[in-house]
Amino acid sequence: MSEPTHALLPDRVGLLVRLTANPGMRPALLDALNRYADGLGEEPGTEMYVVHTDPDDENIVWLYEIFTDDEAQRAHQGADGFAELMTEIPDLLGGPPAVLRLAPLRMSLQEQVLRDDLIL
Q1: I need a surface site. Which of 39, 45, 63, 119 has the fewest CB within 10 A?
Q2: Residues 6+ apart with CB under 8 A from 54
Q3: Could you read off the pLDDT of 57-94 as tens digits, one per residue?
Q4: Residue 112 — pLDDT band, cuts 50, 70, 90?
C-alpha cells in the first residue's frame, strides 16, 4: 500500500451542505447535482465537490465543497451552472439547504483514488 498524498489547505473555504429532498425525489436531486458536477471545469476555484447520500435517510444528500478562498466561493455562487442548478432543485427540496461554513486545514488522499480506473 502506498503513502497517501497530503495537502495543507490554508485560507480555503469549506462548506458542508445538507439537502433534504421531497419524498421519492432524491434520485432526481442526485441527477441534477451530478449534471452540475460535470460542469465544474468552469469553476477553477472550486477545488473539491463531493456528493454523499445519507445511508440512514433516503431523502438526505450531503455536499462537501472546498474553495480556494472567499472570492472563489462567491464566483461559484455566481456561475452559470450554479444558477441553472438553483432553478432546477427548489421543486425537489422539502426545505431550504442547511449550510455549515468550515475552514479546512489538511487533506489526505489515498493514491488509488487518483488512479485512472477509479476516475469517472
Answers
A1: 119
A2: 60, 61, 62
A3: 999 999 999 999 999 999 999 999 999 999 999 999 99
A4: confident
**Angle at CA 46, nearest 5°, toward 115 and 78?**
150
Range of the domain at 87: 5-118
- Classify each residue of 78-111 as buried b or exposed e, where b means 16 or more C-beta atoms within 10 Å of its C-beta: ebebbeebeebbeebbeeeeeeeeeebeeeeeee
Which grid cell sits at 9? 489547505
Q: Is the pLDDT of residue 29 over 90?
A: yes
Number of folded domains in the chain? Answer: 1
The rounded Cα 54 to chain-centroid distance in angstroms is 14
CATH number at residue 60: 3.30.70.100
